[in-house]
Amino acid sequence: MNRTLRIGTRGSALALAQTGHVADALRAAGADVEIVTISTPGDRSSAPIAEIGIGVFTSALRDALANGEIDVAVHSFKDLPTARDPRLAPAAVPPREDPRDALVARDGLTLGELPVGSKVGTGSPRRAAQLAALGLGIEVVALRGNVDTRIRKVTDGELDAVVLARAGLTRLGRAGEITETLEPIQMLPAPAQGALAVECRVDDVDTEHLLQSTLDDSASRAAVTAERALLARLEAGCSAPVGALADVVEDLDDQGAAVLRLSLRGVMATEDGDLLRASATGDLTAAEELGRALAVELLDLSGLAAARSEGRS
Ligand SMILES: NCc1[nH]cc(CCC(=O)O)c1CC(=O)O
């Protein structure tokens, strides 16, 4: 294949870093690539994500890909709507970065060390709900903007801390500013956090094969598939209070032989702000079923929770 692949990306520092990694991997495999920056309405607006809607960062990129302006699109997987775009093929999920959330706090503090009344910034209802549920007496402050803007609120003293995806900081070379990596037991990440989605046009079979064979990591893909199936079944967008994390774990089959399985944990906030948690394990090859089954379990729990809160009122 001698054509130059045009790889589209958003213009944020994070998006450029992510796309740079993908471009390097493709070049190392002998492909000729060029990076094209596409501005999205999400980048131009400063309104809260919950108001401007899911897909603001990704739909302009997807349109450019479908129109033939670019040949490959690189997205943060967690920013993609759960519905598949029929014009595009989800060609590759590269090896995932650490999916956990991270705290960047003043004076090197951890969550547990933040004094009562501390202001912690996040624009994510998922992070806000899980922070509130820790019962630390901290004040969660709404926040938007790129990684640099958010961290600057801490350096400037406006906030005591912010919560961000560890993966974003790592990709920007700023992991050294993390003061605590939050364990999933207290803060489950967004479904697909830390993973990238690399797409091409659905009829561009050559590119699909190239992307798949050079970039795709089957374990990352299985984990993300389970997490996203859970999210889709809960019919929640990227900013809804749903967290999920799948790990590939070694288990023993009926004959005692080692097999790899998926272990999935999920959390969902109720309207009352209570957290519902559930977990399940399943076959690596049945990731979607696992995600859907765990979503149903969470929905059952939320039905019980709703009935209980009716009883109280
Ligand atoms: N919604 C913004 C967004 N989309 C992807 C990342 C980080 C990288 C990733 O999760 O892959 C971020 C920033 C953040 O949540 O801190």
Which structural category do the helix and sheet elements fall into?
alpha/beta
CATH topology of the largest domain, by name, is: D-Maltodextrin-Binding Protein, domain 2
Mind telling me the C-alpha Rg?
Answer: 20 Å
| Ligands and ions found | ligand PBG
**What percentage of residues falls in helices of 4 or more residues?**
25-40%
> Do you know the CATH architecture of the largest domain?
3-Layer(aba) Sandwich
Question: Considering the protein shown, what is the CATH homologous superfamily of the largest domain?
Answer: Periplasmic binding protein-like II
- The rounded distance between the terminal residues' Cα atoms is 66 Å
Rounded mean pLDDT is 92
The fraction of residues assigned to DSSP E strands is 15-25%
CATH class of the largest domain: Alpha Beta
Element order: H for helix, E for strand: EHEHHHEEEEHEHEHEEHHEEEH
Give the strand tally: 13
Shape: globular
Spatial strand arrangement across the major sheet = 2-1-3-10-4
Number of discrete domains: 3
Count of helix runs: 10
User: Could you give a short account of the major beta sheet?
Assistant: 5 strands, mixed
* Spans of at least 5 consecutive residues with low confidence: none
Organism: Saccharothrix australiensis
Pfam family, one: Porphobil_deamC
Domain Porphobilinogen deaminase N-terminal: 5-207
Family: Belongs to the HMBS family.
